[in-house]
């Protein structure tokens, strides 16, 4: 059964297997990894997980350029299949990246997992009171475009990136 779970150190080994599925040096959308995050050591991983979970707390101040975000891991039977993040506002880089970013590990693609996860995260966006959300994907990422469209995405503009709005 698929679940959206808050990041946890208890899934470190499963998360590392998911990261390894992408391959070294590949950016995994939806996980909120920054260039300075050390996810290989247990201590670094724990600090990263704490930062991800703190980011969702609107009472906590964030460093410049960051916005509050709800981060979730897509998990099935104890295996991390991907990640999805809901940015609570469209300021700074979030205005370019959109409200929601997600990624599914290569070995889990083609099963409808992203469509399911996006639908579940839209429920979280509704709970935050957002009237609509912006999603952005590369123009050559037809799988992501289809995922967004299956969840009601309406294309606003296209160039090298596709910008979709979903009314909530």
From TrEMBL:
InterPro entries: Acyl_CoA_acyltransferase, GNAT_dom. One of its GO terms (molecular function) is acyltransferase activity, transferring groups other than amino-acyl groups. The keyword Transferase applies. It comes from the Bacteria. Keywords: Transferase. The keyword Transcription does not apply. Pfam families: Acetyltransf_3 (PF13302). Residues 2-168 form the N-acetyltransferase domain. This is Predicted acetyltransferase. It comes from Amycolatopsis sacchari.
